[in-house]
Structure formats: structure tokens, C-alpha cells
Amino acid sequence: MSEYVRSRIRMVRSVRTPKTVRKAARKAAPRAASAAAVLATLATLGAAFGGTADAVARGPRPAADVYVAPNGDDRAPGTRTAPVRTPERARDLVRKRVPQQSADLTVHLAPGTYRLSRPLVLDSRDSGGNGHRVIWQGGKGTVFSGGRAVRGWRPVKGSAGLWSAPAPAGLDNTRQLYVNGVRAQRARGPIPVTLTATDTGYTASAGTLARWRNPSDIEFVYPSGEALWNIQQYGLGPWTEPRCPIGSTTGTTVTMAQPCWDNSTRRVEFPDIPGRSINMVGPAKLTGGALPGYVENAFEVLDQPGEWYLDRHTRTVYYRPRSGENPRTAEVEAPVLEKLVDGRGTGRAPLHDIALRGIEFSYATWLTPSSPEGFSEVQAGYTVTGPEGWKTQGLCDYTPGGTCPYASWTKMPGNVAISHGRDIEFSDDAFTHLGAAGLELGTGTRNATVRGNVFTDISGNGMEIGGVDAPRPGSDADLTREVSVTNNHLYALPREYHGGVAILNGYTRNNTIAHNQIDHVGYSAISMGWGGWPDKIGKPATANVSRDNRVSNNLIFDYMQALDDGAGVYTQGLTGSSLGNGEKITGNVIHDGWGLGRTVYTDNGCTYVTVEGNVLYGAQANVLSAHVDYRDDLGNNDPTRIVGNYWEQGDPDGTDKGVVTSGNHILADPSKAPADIVAAAGLEPGYRGLLGRTFAADSAPEAPTRVGDFAADGSVYVTWNPSYVEGGAPVTSYTVTATSSDGAHTVSTTVPAARFKRIAYAVVDGLTNGTPYTVTVTARNGVGRSETSLPAAPVTPSAGGSGALPDAPTGVKANADATAATLSWTPPKTTGDTPVIGYRITVSDGRTATTVTGRDVLVSQPRAKGMLRVIGKLRPATAYTFSVAAMTATGTGPSADVSVTT
Q: Which stretches are annotated as coiled coil (predicted)?
């Protein structure tokens, strides 16, 4: 080969276009040479970049696909027969081939686990080219993992049932551990001392915590929810669950880590509005006396099967196996990476025309909550961060030194994250075994498709769209819009930060969230909008770019199973500039919210929302609430349309200062809801196979939470939050165990899960009066029994009640249509000797009295929250009188009456 031909090869390798190759071939071949000589030169030059003489002679051709396999070699060319090993090397090959792209370029990911040593970073260089896409195509069993296998397990001498293993290389800290794909519980338990809050933490009744191993790794958790029986509210509102690490302990002095402690326990108050924090979300300080509910990440509470602990100082992982587990043969994974895919587009150079398909994103963590920042939650995974963040962050011009814009708190990151992405697709993927949010489509994401994916076993939010840092982006490139989230299944989340939601949407435009199934979630299913809280001080909501967002034809059920004051669809703030371009919530079927809340919650500053043609039932209320519109001085409510729904709320038609209610139908029997609405909600037929996708072996359910009780004569009444992580098989029963303070007397009762769901409490009889009892609860499914719940506060049965009955309920009202009536009331002002456990409704037509109970009955009392129930099978044009009476463990009180004509 002549030096000239060699020089042309070097040139072709640097430019790599067929046109250049043909030109180089003509120059390299002698002028008098035959056609065969030209073709021979073409063959030589074509081989320089992997082509053939014929392909080069024909002109433009697709860039060669890239092949990857876990057993590949990164020195290989990435062909079908010689694949590379890592996605990172495949990305580098793609970068070289995109300039010659004339069709979609596919990265073929063979089945298997790709253990990432660092996040797969994608930027504009990894985008599609010439109008075509780069497709990362996986298949069944293709996993992007940020975990490390934990091996070398041995029993710990002198500790029956406890095993240990050396931490693998690279594991310095993690917040999760998985055994055979099942999330293990980080060691937790009751706090062994009595704590008294101080300015910097606590004074303990004894020096127990100071003697524990690694006190600075201990984390205090502040679970929330509505106050109930002897359950306190520990968080910054019933929708939050802050967490803070201990900074240090000396004797009985517990000093909490900063800035988490101040950011979680302090708020700036308006000087002229006592008790109103300037951030306007929740109370002015941590409730419950700033006392934690339980302790986590301490070796000393590693006492139940399924719990684990990482001793970072000795680099040892400890685990108590569940029944049937053998750590020596189990697959144990500890997440190390905090991101798996990091899409770093910019406004000037976006990441674009990329699809990620058929990939399972698993085993990533998030370590900020383990740092002094902790997890100072405000709402939906947004936290207050930074030194003195409590008095500056997101407080804007409401306080000196406040940062703008208002309410721009710190968003939970995504383990898979894209910023400034255009024409991005995630389809047929799984986001599971993750420690932060699952998928984050951040600032500047546009024309993105999230379709046919599963989101489950995620510590925080399932997916996040846009943000709240820029209500009015300075550049069109920073606007998040035209994101389509359709036909996904989101369930059994959040696992760790229980105030998280399945889908979080910030300030965005033209987004569609449709035909998803969301079930068994701890708090709200979908959260839309932001920045509406200033209406609490008579100010308009934050002006923002949001408009034309749609939440349609979703199936949502069994939501708010850990916290309260949320909804199937929660929305707030300005959603548009008119009812025409405001948010549309249509065609959804939303039912069975466990906590106190709504099916659709139009919260602070929620303007121009249309709620139309939905089926809504099984909640404390269906569509609430109306707020004053402070954009003008007219005294109207925020403009809202509530039309054509099938619901239990039963509000009559009317216009209430801007809230239009029209053509709604009282739904007495959910089975009678319109078949077309029900059939169209949730996953479309081609995607219903997602409901059968699993990512771990079936396991016992997660333990119930928020166990509360009260004592009566020889018995204890017990309530709890059900297990929304069922382990792959439905929960069949709950077992409640009451143990006397001396441990000598134990009584248990088992209730079917379906019965508990209806009545929301159980009674343990046969107890000894005058003896304190501690109550715990376990859940059982077809696989086995859960861990034992954290105990309720001890209670003492007694026969010495006064016999006082509850007062009559107050504010009883009735609204009727032709065949059904909605009754509404508030709890009695006093309940006598014991809390209300139900209501008895009698109807003047002589039918058998209806007993009303459920979680909303139990949690409605401390804050006098409203109740509603539907009475069906009424005759048209008939007068009825309804009587409502409260029921307690002592007996039934007097009734309150209301009459209505159908």
C-alpha cells in the first residue's frame, strides 16, 4: 500500500463519511486505472471504518449498530459477534457513529446485569443525528445496576440468627439492602429513653444512646399523619415525614446534626400573624413536642428477621435472615451509585432523539439524608436545605434575606435523570429497587414520552416532571413541556420517604398523564402544580407558566396508605390563565383512599381547574376545596368547574363565587358507575401485561405502621395503617397481639384483611383490668408473616368508666337526587368515655340501620373533620328523614336528624 493511500485512510478515519471515502478513492487510484482498481481502493478505504466497497460506492448508509453484552470486551469493535462490555464504552462508540447516521442507530443490550462503576452520563454528543434516534434497546433481564454484591456471609458468634459479611469494595455507605430482590428493613425500633427537646436536640432520661455503637449514624424519624387515639403527629403536617441524624451524644445530651435539626424544627413566623410560618406550609414548628417516633440505623435495634445494619467503621454488613433465607446462597445487593443514567443536556446543547427501552434500572441509593442535611421535608419530597435554610430558602421577599422564587425548596433527585432533554423516550422499562426518585425529567425537558413502564420499590417519588425553581423560566429552552406519561404501572411506593408521590409535576405546559394505573401508594398518587400557599395570607398564588396540562383516564386506588391530607390527584397553584387552558382532570376512576383526604384535592391557589366525567368514591371527600381568589378584590373563589362526575359528595348544582358545580351524579353503588368511564380508565389493553411483571421473588408483606390503641373494660381497641407493600401476594389477614407489661400475659386476635379494611380497627378481649398492655400488629399473605410493627404506646384496661356516651354529631346535612342521598356531618363535640368508632344511620322508611365505620371515622375526630356517606335505594319524589348517632366502646349516643325529598 502506497503512503498516499495510507494518508487517505487516515483522512477517512478522521472524517468518516461515504462521500469522503468515494472522493478519496478516486484520488488514490491512478487516473488510467481500471474500474477494478478503483473498487479495490474503495475496499481498502471502506475497511478503514468498518464498511465495504459496495456500501461506500452506493453512498449514504446507516451507521453500524452497537452491541453490548455483560461478557463482552471493551476492546472489541461492538459488533454482533464481538460486543463491548459496558454501556459507557457503547456510548463512546455511538459518539463516533452518529455523524454518519442516516437511520435510527440501536445499541443492542444483551440480557444480563451491567454493574455500573459510575453513572452513564449522556450529553448532546450522545443524541441522535440527521433526524434519527439513538435507541438503547434492552430486553427481558437487561439490568443497569448501581449495586455491589455482598458475599462471604457467616453467622455471628454469640448472636443467634445474626449474620455478617465484609462490605464489598466501593461500599462506604448505603441506605438500602436487597436480599433476592426484596428490600430489607434498615434496623429500627422504639427509642429506649425518654427525650426532652432542647434548642440543639434532646436531653435523655439515661445515657443509653451514648453507649450504643456509632451514635452519629443513628437517625431519628418523625412519622406523621392525622392525630389519632394515642398516635401523635410528629412531622411538619400530616403529609410529611422528616428524618434527622444524631450529630453526637455525650452522657444524656443528644446533639442533633445541623442543619437538619434547625431546618426541621424552626420556622420564621410573620410578626403580625402569630403561628403562621412565612413558608406558609404546615405549622410554625415541628409538632409533637419535636419528639421522634422511632430510631433507625442502630445496631442495637437489629432484632427482627429482615433487618440489616452497615457498620461503616468496621466495614461490616449485618443481617437477620427471614424464614427460609440462606445468606450464603442468597443474592444480596447493596446500592452504591446515586445515579444510574445522568442526562446532562443544556439549553444551548440539549440531549435529544434518544430512546431507552426494555431496561431495568435498579440498585441506586441517595446519601444526602444520611448527611448532616438529613431529610427536612416540606411536601412531596421537597426539603429545606443549607445552613439556615429554614429562614431563607424559598421565602423570597416575605422575609429579609429570603431566596427567590417563593417555595423553591430542594427537590429529591432522580436515580435516572434527564435535564434539557428533547424528544426523549422511556418505554418498556422498569424503575425498581431505587433509593431516591425513580425518573426525573428536569428543567427544559420537552416532547418526552414515558410509556409502558413499571415503577415500584422506590424510596421516594416514582417520577418527577419539571421543577419549581423557575415559575417563569428566563429562556424558552428551560421550559418543561409536552411530556406524555401514559400506560405505566406505579405501585408499592414510596418505601422510605413516605411523603413522596407516584407522579410529581411542577411548573409545566401541555403535559399529559393518562391511562396509568397507580395503586398501593403511601401518600398522594399524582401531585400537580405548586406555589399556591400565599392565599393563606391574602396574596395570589405564584405566577407561573403552567397551562394545558391534562390528567385523564387514570385508574387510582388504595392510595394514602401511610400519611394523610392528600389525594388521588392533588393540585394547587395557578394552572393556566383561563378555564380553557387550565388543568383538566377528566375520565379518571379514583377510589379507596385510606388516609384522611380527597379523591381530587384542589388546594391553595388552585385556579382554572376542570374536574369532569370522573368516577370518585371511597374517600373522606371527593373534590375539595374552594379558596378565595386573591388576584382581584371581588371576593370570589378560585375559578373551578366540577361537572358530570359520578361521586359520593353529592353537592347540588350551583355557582359558588366562581366554583361551578353542575350535572354530577350521586354514586350509591360503585358497580353502577358508567361502564365506558370504568373501561377506559387505567392501562389500555395492549399494556395490561404490565400488571404481571415482577422484579423479586414473592415475599411476606411490609409491617403495618402507625399502630394506635385505647383501652376499655377488659379489652383494647387497635387501629393501624395497612401494609401497602404486599410482597407480590395480597395481604390476607392481620394479627394483633397485646402483651402485658411484665410479659406474662399475651393475647392475640386475627382479623381478615377485607374486614379490617371495612372497619379499620380490631378488638383484643380477655385482658386483665389494671394491667398495662403493649400492642403490635403483623400482616400475613400467602408467602408468610411480616415483621412485627413498632408498638403502640401502652394502655391499661379498666372497668371504671363513667358510662358517659358521646354527644350527637353536629352539622348534619343531606343532598339528594332521584334515588340516593348524601349525608354529611362532623363528629360530636365530646365523645364520652372512649373515642368514636362508628356511626349508626337510620332511615325513616324502616330499613335496617346502617353502621358506618372506617379509617375516616377514626381520624376525623381530633380535628373535627367532616364525614359523608351515601344512602341508596330511595324512591323518587319521596320525603325521608335520616338520623345519625355516634358509637363508642361505651355505647351509642343521641342522634341528630335531617330531612330531604328526593
A: none
